[in-house]
Amino acid sequence: MRRQIGLIITRRGVVDRVIVGTGHSLDLTAVGQSRLGQRSLRGVRLVHTHLHDEPLNQEDLTDLALLRLDLIAAIGLGATGAPDHLYIAHLVPPNGAGRVCEVLPPSSVHGCEMDCEQFVAGLEDELSRLTRSQAVNGGQEAAMLISASMRSRQEQEGRLAELSELATSAGLRVLAQVSQRVADINPKYLLGSGKLKEVVIMALQRGADLLVFDQDLTPAQVRAITDLTEMKILDRTQVILDIFARRAHSREGKLQVELAQLRYLLPRLAGGGTAMSRLGGGIGGRGPGETKLETDRRRVRDRIAHLERELSAFVQ
Predict the structure, then answer these.
(1) What is the assigned CATH class of domain 142-315?
(2) Adjacent-strand bridge partners of 181
């Protein structure tokens, strides 16, 4: 059988899944369906065959980055079909060089002495330590700004500059801006899925916590983009509402802002558990006075009704 074979292996050394691909690639869609949660790495590694003893290719390294695999390994098969070389790569913490992963020198399949469990534990500890360090040093969330638009280049750049100012006012640290001029807006991801994957890899390189879109996203787009990127996703309106929430001082003003936030949030809660769980208490998930916004649909409806009653009392 001249097809690639892949094994998804847990940290306990248990084979969780066997994937049979084509002669050149594997379909890893099912692997991405297991959620990352708050982990830096997914908790599984991919070991697969390369039929012509070739090293890891760009598709392999992209899968490693997008899926946040513990590591990826390719077993190169020699001319007789027997295992020959072993090729391994793993993610690295955000760094000044902009590297996402490190490819180790090839070794003999029979001479590899890597202790995967110990190695991955050390790597994840390093990634977690970096995250904690960033939280201590100011606690600012780091964002990448995204725009996909049919507008002119000048107008698009102007809107991104304005979004950058808004994001800074909301307490975000802007790391980079990515723009794409399109003939048609992608109804699912706003920009093309290939471009979105590039954005995720860039976010990993720079240590971004979230993506902020210049355009307002539909609830379906928020869910689709979150599922693909596994990152916190915000749009322009959420950033603006967050600024209002930070600056509201009067009782009536705070009620009005929270009501607007919850009305915007409510349609995005339907089937959007993953997207909403990533909001946490930071931007997009906080109300006036740094309070955490409710994200349970029934409680949000109850809270909206309560706020409307309170505001009606001000009118009277």
Answers:
(1) alpha beta
(2) 149
